[in-house]
Amino acid sequence: MASTQCVVVLFLITFTSTAFSRSILETSPKTHHSFTSNPIFIRRKIPKDGNAFYCESWRLSVETDNAGSWTQIPASCLDFVEEYATGDHYSSDLEVFAENALEFAKEVNVSSIHGKDAWVFDIDETLLSNVGYYEFYGFGYYDVDALNEWVESAVDPALPASLELYKELQNMGFKLILLTGRSESLRNATEKNLLQAGYSNWETLILRGPSDTDKTATVFKSEKRRELEHHGFKIHGNCGDQWSDLRGFAVATRSFKLPNPMYYAP
Amino acid sequence: MASTQCVVVLFLITFTSTAFSRSILETSPKTHHSFTSNPIFIRRKIPKDGNAFYCESWRLSVETDNAGSWTQIPASCLDFVEEYATGDHYSSDLEVFAENALEFAKEVNVSSIHGKDAWVFDIDETLLSNVGYYEFYGFGYYDVDALNEWVESAVDPALPASLELYKELQNMGFKLILLTGRSESLRNATEKNLLQAGYSNWETLILRGPSDTDKTATVFKSEKRRELEHHGFKIHGNCGDQWSDLRGFAVATRSFKLPNPMYYAP
């Protein structure tokens, strides 16, 4: 009986939890939340309308931004997303993304504007991977406190293809700008995590300050890119897993979209 | 011996043919070219660096525009592209694209600006499908004369999901603008093909005129969208298979990218 109640409660938690947005990374950590167990999911396994490619097509709609402002992974695609994000397909997509970015970087005459050739990177799902969190809690399940605690614990590994790209760009002379929607309150944890994951010597780390709280990611990041331009930087490349990292104004010469079918940040 | 020579010649034709651009649709048809046989391809079947997901990742890089200005399908992905474009995966992607577009369209208050609520469609690989041409000649193989003749013959079928979307939008009161990089010289063939494929009652069909010849697709299409705005149209949606259909200025409120791993048009 107790276990039945547990299943029901977890089911309700899962399906009544509020829509996730990356803004949860921008609030201060609250109470302690221990990582004790995976929530139980009721997952619909039958593809939508019998379309075996539905989840692939849904993922493409997310990556091209056709899906727009989506809030939840379709129930029938939870296993698909888990398999994607924890398997070789995601790694392969990331490797090809990094190849594309590097190919463009090699066309840039880095020495042309001494010390001001810049490349912008987002952090979550761009330099660092929170897949461990999603794998532990179950894909499609989000808990603000737990995710904050996860980020505070600074245990994210680097996305290997991104780390390699980062180092290559650095060797080529680009100034690396880290521009994240994470709150200033997470600066120490973020720096610690980045260093532990192998990143170093960034030009600047820009987090969301108190005056940026009400801005969309697109506006916040565009404003910061414009400030960089006013300081003389030429933003050649920009890498992010969300379209809101890449669009708006003061956009880079080339923008590179990393895959992320796990969540949407407006 | 003769057949060996034939293979060698076809190999050379295949791998030395000039890079394709959709501009070939914008030149006048030249000599007669009969559709007699498929070229023979030497296809490298081994995935790049042993990465089983390479072609999937390459396709994603095209659809997100990470690949930028690409000219050739990777040799190891020719069979992959053929299987994609002639199978259920492409259809599924198109269906989800159309669902995304329709979902947004339903949010629009179409009656708000009487008779001026517009939706823009590209034509090739957006309303009409040239897959028959690519299937006949072999994916990755392009011949200017043959493609021109194909387009002149006006035999393209509709992409079913696009035709359904087109009709739904029309019923909702949107004015449908067809904006294509095809040359004015192809107006008759294009109108004939559209009508035969089931499209009708478009507001206007805009083709590339003599003064547009030297413009990139992005500039040509942006200028035409701006003209539409100057005529009082509000462009709510825009559908195209190339990023050059969707970007630039005077962009639609929402842009929808149809998949196309077959070719790139700048």
TrEMBL record, chains A, B:
Superkingdom, natural source: Eukaryota
Signal peptide feature range: 1-21
Keyword set, alphabetical order: Glycoprotein, Signal
A Pfam family: Acid_phosphat_B
Family per record: Belongs to the APS1/VSP family.
PANTHER family, per the entry: ACID PHOSPHATASE-LIKE PROTEIN
Descriptive protein name: Acid phosphatase
